Amino acid sequence: MPTRARLRLLRSLARADARRAEGLYLVEGRRLVMEALLSRAPLTEIFVTAAFAAGEHGADLLAATETMQVSVESVPDKDLAALADTKTPQGVVAVVRHVPSDLSILDRPGPGLFLALDGVADPGNVGTLVRAADAFAVRAVIAGPGTADFANPKVLRGAMGSTFHLACVAVPDLPAALRRLRGSGAFVAAATLDGTDARELPPLPRRVALLLGNEARGVSAAARAEADTAVTIACPGRAESLNVALAGGILLALLSGAAR
Model pTM? Predict the structure, then answer.
């Protein structure tokens, strides 16, 4: 049974500053915890309620922990609820150790698709974009300052486990990261309102990075200066614009087809 002090510390991980200070974050729900286990994420503790442990899903999850060095503790429903971010928790929460971003992925040669996020602030959008990136075999999602934390509970839920399937890299200087990508042979395409229709792009190099900007302000001038081209999605309908997550998914599909 975790001590009161330990529970207070774990509850503090709802805040980004506490996650950074402790080097830990929480993963909630049977699907996400199972994805973390199967992906060999560095879990340190798993907390379950008695009802969850006794159920079929609980038995499967606990069986998956047998080959990993992770402690499993039963806690009262009220303690589990205090750790959970959702209103109706499923009865399982895991503690995951944060692994520092490996920036060497920006320099590794070879074909691949990358996604760079320039101040995409909404956690739901970031989570959806990570999931889309996973679907289109993106090698890494690169987040600049102002982008929602990959360990934010809403990002984790929106990504539906994809956070554990691909590299999610936070960088302090996004333009510098884009320069590194270009130095490794990547072609950088910035999503803007005034770019070339992405459906009309000529064949692209096999190493491509899509740059998406903030929901309200778009791509910053400093980041756009590092792009090789600007792309858009021409919309014949009456909607003023597309949500960044929807636009990002469409552009990833188009760029993955154009990169060859």
Answer: 0.94
